[in-house]
Amino acid sequence: MAVQSRRQESTEERVTPLELFFDLIFVFAITQVTGLVVADPTWGGLVQGLLVLGVLWWSWAAYAWLTNTINPEEGIVRIAMFGAMAAMLIASLAVPDVFGDDAFLFACAYAVVRIAHLVLYAVAGRGDRDLLGAVARMAPGTAVSISLLFVAAALDGKVQVAVWAVALLIDLLGVYIGGGKGWHLAPSHFAERHALIVIIALGESIIALGLGASHELDAGVIAAALLGLAIAAALWWAYFDVVAIVAERKLREATGNAQLTMARDSYSYLHLPMVAGIILFAVGVKKTLGDVGEPLKLIPAVALCGGVALYLVAHVLFRLRNVHTFNRHRSIVSVLLLALIPAAVELPALVTLGLVAALCVGLIAYEAIRFAEARDRVRHAAEPAT
Asked: CA distances (Å), 72 to each of 17, 50, 65, in order?
């Protein structure tokens, strides 16, 4: 079985077309999660949506590490990736009734995705004791997580949700065993892959805008669509203007185990709440466009304001992990967004959306002006010679 590692390549590390193709399945999965929460705008529906997102995210993250280690477009790996895509598609199709009749189908598809990942990693690690050791440490947690999803398929109600939560927690904590020892990393490729997934999540918010505005277009709907786009643009700016650049450089500068743990913490873990925040925002904006003149119900209000707040809090933690400094202004805006929730259930949805947009755009404007010199240095610094 031919497997080519990225360390064997002499070309610049870039995300491959097959990886982008693989990510299209995750686009559909995100859309399904958004639909799951929109269809059941309750606390239970919100928790279920976040749990499903966490499980799907961890599957995607596992393959992000795998294709960062091996070239997915060479040998049998390409065929295996197509097989994983098929299983991920089935899992995504099962999302709308994942806590009902399609629970077992989801568990089966998820098992195929994760087992294929472990097999490919084991093949890639032949002759590399450290990598095989890392795979062996991760395998028990993955096996327990898969087994618990099958157990959950036979349950219902709060017990089923609780088993899902335990399964996700075990999977997330599994990679902490042994720290980052044994894994391999191509830092620029890894950072680019996660930046692209942020773009995909933001794309879901744009889709939500389009679907929410699919009925009669009046001045209120058009205004809401433009405000939603302004928020999405602010979220894009918050990540890509400086943060993504600095994070990638810090990851490249780190070495050894410190680099691996930084990749795990900053990207595999902290990008999950970023993506979750964007999806919650998409839920909130879709509900807003449904009736711009009426106040939002509690869960859509939490999704709209709390989703953006969660995204910014993840940024605060991202910066704290990478550069060890605390971002006060993004923290303050996060608190203000959470404080807006009680008003959001009383004000017209369009007004709430306008206030969220004002906070987000105001934050970006403040940062661009207040840190103009530092921003210019970061964005135009010469890249180190390779």
From this structure: 10, 29, 11
